[in-house]
Amino acid sequence: MIPPRRTRTIRIRSLELGGAAPIRLQSMAATRTQDVDATLRQVQLIQAAGADLVRIAVDSKADVDALARIRGATDALLSVDLQENYRLAEHVAPHVDKIRYNPGHLHHHEKQRSTRDKVAWIVDVCAQHGLALRIGVNAGSLSPEHAERFGDDHVGALVHSAADHCAIVDELGFRDYVVSIKDSDPKLVVDANLRFAELRPDVPLHLGVTEAGLPPDGIIKTRIAYEQLLSRGIGDTLRVSLTLPFDDKGQEITVARELLRDIEQGRFRSVPPNFFDGLNIIACPSCSRVENEKFIELAQDVKELTRYAAAHKLTIAVMGCRVNGPGETDDADLGLWCGPKHVNLKRGTEELGAFGYDEILARLKDELDRLITARS
After folding, report:
1. Could you say which DSSP state residue 183 is in?
2. Can you tell me the mean pLDDT for 145-160?
3. Alpha carbon of 228 to those of 178, 190, 194, 207: distances in Å?
4. CB atoms < 10 A from the CB of 266, how many?
5. Per-residue pLDDT tens over the stretch 25-44
6. How far is it, in rounded angstroms, from Cα 164 to Cα 146?
7. Given CA atoms 192, 194, 200, 204 in this order, what sign does their dihedral have?
8. What homologous superfamily does CATH list for 10-264?
């Protein structure tokens, strides 16, 4: 049930991706990168589950030092997420096989330097070290340029952000790159990837529903997107992003394999028309940027606390870090993003304050009750 894919084949070291190559599975370490033992264990769990690639986030020189130690202890293919500091590319390059940058984050540093120059610099680092590249567009962190240019056409902004960066990389003569366009809404993921694939059918696509949340809801959201895309021959590598205890991180690969097998064999599962009509809880899958491991427990507690509101069409976003948290909670009715000692609470884009981990659930319930009452 998965037709032949039309994308070109690229290489991540000896691994072929795209075209006639198998659809590759990957996941991301959820621990703090500087906790080398814990992160290495995550890499080993993910690799043992059958991942073709493992991603690690790096946001500082201390993270780079930790990455070097991890690299020395594993033969797994490693991808690194540059986050907001693209200049770290030259430091991580000797220790990884692939680099991911987010076009929406390039404006944060060296504002006097053009986007093209920054991309050219990253591409040059990849070329010098024989690395592959991912252009990773995220709905929660669009570049100001594309957000302004496309206005209310959010999907168009995402698609053309990716396409514009592909054009830069093409012009530079670099070939081993893949694109991802992600959001927590599977319908948007489907729309954006369909539109991009029509625009650039040659470019391999990395599929993902970001911040899908806790099982089973997170698995259902991901299945919706993958059934719609893979059945059209769209998708060359994929990740299932779930909020899981650290020791269960290999389940992302297990679930991805099960979803892929079901789609290959034509086992599709219908989605009730009203699936998204009730309470929708978005939660990120955790990564090294999370500064307090209580985040995962908090996400589970939020799900339990809010069961009484299941029939209300509201969105609650629970994010684990200060990098993605502020922006990716903006579209939620209520948003929580976690720091080392406090959880920041938002109502839409309005900041309501920071509360201790022992205070936040009660305050969240108060705000949820107010929203329910206001909409009754």
Report:
1. B
2. 94
3. 20, 7, 9, 11
4. 9
5. 999 999 999 999 999 999 99
6. 10
7. positive
8. Dihydropteroate synthase-like (3.20.20.20)
**Shortest CA distance to 326 belongs to which of 133, 141, 137, 111?**
141
Angle at 232 between CA 280 and CA 199, to 5 degrees: 90
* Amino acid at residue number 340: P
Contacts 24+ apart (CB under 8 A), 9-14: 9/204, 10/132, 10/175, 10/176, 10/177, 10/178, 10/204, 11/132, 11/176, 12/53, 12/77, 12/79, 12/97, 12/98, 12/132, 12/176, 13/77, 13/97, 13/130, 13/132
Query: Which CATH fold topology does 280-375 show?
Result: Sulfite Reductase Hemoprotein; domain 1 (3.30.413)
10 Å CB burial of residue 37 (0-12, 13-18, 19+) is: exposed
What are the extents of the domains in the chain?
Answer: 10-264, 280-375
In this predicted structure, the answer to whether residue 308 has a pLDDT above a threshold of 80 is: yes
Q: Which amino acid is at 366?
A: D
Q: Convert the pLDDT of each residue in 73-92 to its tens digit.
A: 999 999 999 878 899 999 99
Please, what's the largest Cα pairwise distance for the chain?
A: 60
Does the structure show a pLDDT above 80 at 285? yes
DSSP of 208-227:
-BTTB-STTHHHHHHHHHHH
Distance CA 306, CA 279 (A): 8
pLDDT by residue (tens digit) across 196-240? 999 999 999 999 999 888 999 999 999 999 999 999 999 999 999
Buried b (16+ CB within 10 A) or exposed e, 110-143: eeeeeeeebbbbbbebbeebebbbbbbbbbbbbb
- Cα 280 to its chain centre, rounded Å, is 18
Claim: this prediction has a pTM higher than 0.85: no
DSSP label of 308: G
